[in-house]
Amino acid sequence: MSNSKDLIPNGAWPVMLTPFNIDRSIDWAGVDALVDYYATAKVAGIFTVCLSSEIYQMNPEERVELATRVVRRADGRVPVIASAVAGSAPSEQADAVKAIADTGVTAVVLLPCLIADEGETNAVWRGRVEQVLAQTGNIPLGFYECPRPYKRGVAPDDLGWAASTGRVLFHKDTCHNLDLMKLKLAATKGSGLKFFNTQMGTLIDTLEAGGHGFSSYAANLYPELVQWVSINFDKDRATALKIQQLLAIAEHSINSKYPASAKYFVSQNAGVDIATTCRSVYDSLGRHDQLPLLALIDYVRSLDLPIDIVSMGAPSSRAA
Question: Of which family is this protein a member (predicted)?
Fold first, then answer.
């Protein structure tokens, strides 16, 4: 197995949106356009079949088909990872891992909240992960502390153990607690595991503590800026801090009606031809929802940033 430096590059890993047609079937042309958008932004990699992809509103066949399409469209330009979604039984998890691995992804991501119920102990959880490892050969794996159906964090000692196996190469952390993240980074120091923060306001802090990048909403909005901060934070800290602050505000602006808001933003800012249609709770956006996003687009375009913004769309004054 290649080491994680080769498989999981440092930087921005957008949590890929899934474009849908009006009838809520998957918009495959939109999927291709989004992959091209991320690749053009030169992100570290793409995380598809994640919560932002609306995985709980897909059937198993669609998840496999989506991962397959993203891998094919990426065509080696960027690595792709995807989640395994299954019941808590290790055999079910292992079968889901194998199905996703067969699509050609770089690594398959386990969701801790699906491996053990909310009331079950960390020991039970670790025991099941051990069985999944045993039943999935040498397939590279990762963790994503998905907040649904409930958020189950991976404790520092459990993350250190997982890293020591050499099989778990990616960790998307959602604890939003800097002290706890530093404990996890200390527990995995020197291993092959790459640690990705989801709290934009503490990204640079975690990078300075040994983290490797970012994987959350802001990487959908401005993937090239997240990538720049992740790679250049130690070369131009003052500028990196300013961009981090901007991204934290930008990310918050889409929270209320995500992922429809992010789909709208990407379509308006980068000219990616996708609709706001979703299968999850939020679907359409009113003008009241759109105006702050359009204002954000205009504001960022007015700034003197250290890199070119990926922006192929017309000015945001166009009709919604």
Answer: Belongs to the DapA family.
Token pair listed for 253: 């602006």
Comparing CA positions, the residue from 241, 222, 157 lying closest to residue 12 is: 222
Q: Give every strand in the sheet of 80-83, ordered side by side.
A: 11-12, 213-214, 194-197, 168-173, 141-144, 107-110, 80-83, 46-48
Q: pLDDT digits over 150-193, tens only?
A: 999 999 999 999 999 999 999 999 999 999 999 999 999 999 99
* CATH topology (fold) of 4-220: TIM Barrel (3.20.20)
Q: What is the pairing mode between strands 11-12 and 46-48?
A: unpaired
- Residue 29: the pLDDT is 98
| Ranges of the chain with pLDDT below 70 | 1-5, 306-320
Token reading at 129: 């992960």
Q: Can you give the pTM of this predicted structure? A: 0.94
Domains of the chain, by residue range, sit at 4-220
DSSP β-bridge partners for residue 214 = 12, 197
